[in-house]
Write a structure and sequence with these properties.
The complex is a heterodimer of chains A (about 325) and B (about 290). With about 325 residues, chain A is mostly helical. Chain A has a domain of about 190 residues: MetI-like fold (Orthogonal Bundle), CATH 1.10.3720. Helix content of chain A is about 70%, strand content about 0%. A two-stranded antiparallel ribbon of chain A has the order 1-2. Chain A is flat. The two termini of chain A are about 35 Å apart. Chain B has 2 domains: about 45 residues, no CATH class; about 210 residues, MetI-like (MetI-like fold, Orthogonal Bundle). Chain B starts with a helix and ends with a helix. Chain B is globular. With about 290 residues, chain B is mainly α. Classes of the chains: A mainly alpha (about 325), B mainly alpha (about 290). Chains A and B meet through α1, α2, α4, α5 and α6 of A and α1, α2, α4, α5 and α6 of B. Chain B: It is a multi-pass membrane protein. Chain B: Belongs to the binding-protein-dependent transport system permease family. MalFG subfamily.
Chain lengths: ~325, ~290
């Protein structure tokens, strides 16, 4: 690294004066200030690449996206080039109109309702099933590593491949599930073509996809709980449920709060499952906020960039409010996060 | 399978939950095994079914037999008649570049955030966290317009840049978790020996963090390999599609072609699963480090 040579002398100089480097505050204030400046300089140099990249490829588009949500931009009035002709942008600033439209219309609120149902049921089911499997896998049991491998498989296969696999199984006329049903004399179920069934179907696929992550994370948490605690509890006559309730659950707290937050955010934004399985259909029955926003800007004509951006900003605001509340609740309960 | 080592290592002392006095009753054992078997079948079956279907002649794709006239014709047709290999190459290029650049850019940041207190740290941490909540919807339109004006739509480079918006904050955040797990005493010994923070990072911490870096790289690879929304929106025309876009061609445009579809699925899943097996040795360690201290 190029920066090594000049800075080395600084660190050495500091090291000579103070035996333990940065940690002890001896020396004159001026020297301390100098030393802290040197430390910050390192830190800032180290974070510089990420700060620059985030600023350029996330910050700038974000600002533009927020700006677009205050305009009436669509496919027909944004700047574009047709052949050699540059057509300048003609969209106008419309203030909060998009937001009032979204928040007072029924489409956004309806989609939000289903998105919340989708997120809560997916996260809850994934967590409960993942926890159960992690608990079983944490015991001494024959063939444990083979089971573990098989249970992780849905995670190892790329999501879009699995979603197509499920679509293949769900196929109404010739999918395996309906062939099995007809084999035992039952009527075919329109898995993806009936609004209610489609909702169950997409949730099932997402839970199937999400369990391995949950299981592996919780298994990691379980393995960090010292076995002595269980022994001691058993000595005191605690039964299995009491041990689970009073040792396992508190021991898993920090892992589970993190994975629950992550998986809530991921599920809320889960684009590929809905998009590839049902495209939001039948009708708009399984459309979540993200897929609907995508549809506004890429699937309808003319593409409605402004409305899409508005929904995007609203999703982001909702998630940030959720994360803030989540953190506040944790902090109230004495959890450091 | 080689994966017995990690579990064995973690469980080396008597497995945490195992009853100390008395053994589990046979009935309980059976119940546990039945549960695990049912769960494993549900987990494996959809994938297995795709594999089995890909080995049947295309006209029998929707039959319920496990094996029927086993053949590789789906694979040969796929490779001969469709641009599958082009898509595969595109995906490999995009995912590989994203991983490489993402990990390279974010490693030092993960370290700095893990070890130093500096003005702006809190802000940076929040930024890293919040950017991971970004729905596709909030960035896709502006990035689409920017890429269009730069002439980067339909280009691998454009997609790599776009994926970095996901990979960079994620890698930095994740690596912070791994660096947190490396004792600070190692840094201090480096300072005592006269190394600069950069030297310490490069010579002492980075070699120790290799498993963490592998897991981080693996996640960014998988994320880019499986990304759907940006790939579907930005890439058009058979030449430029990545796999996520290409597969959609089989089920939408020409009706459902399950034969090539399943063969393609198998070929796509293999590299991802290989990378996964490579990284999964560190998976539990990595996840708990990232999750507990994140």
């Amino acid at each position: 690294m190029a920066v090594d040579t000049p800075s080395q002398s600084v660190a050495k100089a500091a090291g000579e004066h103070v035996a333990r480097g940065r940690s002890r505050g001896t020396g004159t204030p001026r020297r301390a200030a100098k030393r802290s400046l040197a430390t910050h300089w390192y830190a800032w140099a180290m974070i510089a690449p990420v700060v620059i990249v985030i600023g350029v490829i996330i910050g700038y588009p974000l600002v533009r996206g927020i700006y677009l949500s205050f305009t009436d931009a669509n496919e027909r009035n944004v700047a574009r080039s047709i052949g050699v002709n540059e057509i300048p942008a003609t969209y106008e600033f419309v203030g909060l109109e998009n937001y009032t439209d979204a928040l007072t219309g029924s489409q956004f609120l309806g989609t939000l309702g289903w998105t919340v149902v989708w997120t809560v049921s997916c996260v809850a089911l994934t967590f409960v099933l993942g926890l159960a499997l992690a608990n079983i896998l944490n015991r001494k049991i024959a063939g444990r590593s083979v089971y573990r491998m098989m249970l992780i498989l849905p995670w190892a296969v790329p999501g879009f491949v699995s979603v197509f696999a499920w679509r293949f199984l769900y196929d109404e006329r010739r999918g395996l599930l309906n062939q099995i049903l007809s084999g035992v004399g039952l009527d075919a179920v329109p898995w993806l073509n009936d609004p209610l069934m489609a909702k169950f179907a997409v949730i099932a696929v997402n839970v199937w996809l999400g369990i391995p992550f949950m299981m592996v994370a919780l298994l990691g948490g379980l393995q960090s709980i010292p076995g002595e605690l269980y022994e001691a509890a058993e000595m005191d006559g605690a039964n299995a449920w009491q041990r689970f309730r009073n040792i396992t659950m508190p021991g898993l707290r920090s892992v589970s709060t993190t994975v629950l937050l992550l998986s809530t955010i991921w599920t809320f934004n889960m684009f590929p499952v809905i998009f590839l399985l049902t495209r939001g259909g039948p009708g708009e029955a399984t459309q979540i906020l993200v897929t609907q926003a995508y549809k506004f800007s890429f699937e309808i004509s003319p593409r409605d960039f402004a409305q899409s951006s508005t929904w995007g900003v609203l999703i982001l605001v909702l998630l940030m409010i959720f994360a803030a509340i989540y953190q506040r609740v944790l902090r109230k309960q004495g959890e450091v996060w | 399978m080689t994966t017995t080592t990690p579990t064995a290592r973690h469980a080396a002392p008597p497995a945490t939950n195992a009853p100390v006095r008395g053994r589990r009753s046979p009935l309980a054992s059976v119940a546990l095994h039945v549960t695990l078997i049912v769960a494993s079948v549900v987990a494996v079956f959809p994938v297995l079914w795709v594999l089995l279907t890909s080995l049947k002649p295309a006209k029998y794709a929707t039959t319920t037999d496990f094996f029927k006239e086993t053949t590789f014709e789906n694979y040969t047709n796929l490779l001969r008649d469709t641009p599958f290999l082009t898509w595969f190459g595109n995906s490999l290029l995009v995912a590989g570049l994203t991983t490489l650049v993402g990990v390279f850019i974010s490693a030092t940041t993960g370290y700095a955030v893990s070890r130093f207190r500096f003005p702006g740290k809190r802000g940076l941490m929040w930024t890293l966290l919040i950017t991971q909540m970004f729905p596709v919807a909030v960035l896709i339109v502006p990035i689409y317009n920017i890429m269009a004006s730069l002439g980067l739509l339909n280009q691998s480079a454009g997609l790599v840049i776009t994926y970095l918006t996901i990979a960079v904050p994620f890698c930095a955040w994740m690596m912070k978790g791994f660096f947190d797990g490396i004792p600070r005493e190692i840094d201090e010994s480096g300072y005592v020996d006269g190394l600069t923070p950069f030297g310490t990072f490069w010579r002492l911490i980075l070699p120790l963090a290799k498993p963490g870096i592998a897991v981080t790289a693996f996640y960014s690879f998988i994320t880019a390999w499986g990304e759907v929304a940006y790939a579907s929106a930005f890439m058009v025309g058979d030449e430029n599609l990545t796999l996520a876009g290409g597969l959609q061609k089989f089920v939408n445009q020409y009706g459902a072609q399950w034969g090539p579809m399943t063969a393609a699925s198998v070929l796509i899943a293999i590299p991802a699963a290989l990378v996964f097996l490579f990284a999964q040795r560190h998976l539990v360690t990595g996840m708990s480090a990232g999750a507990v201290k994140g």
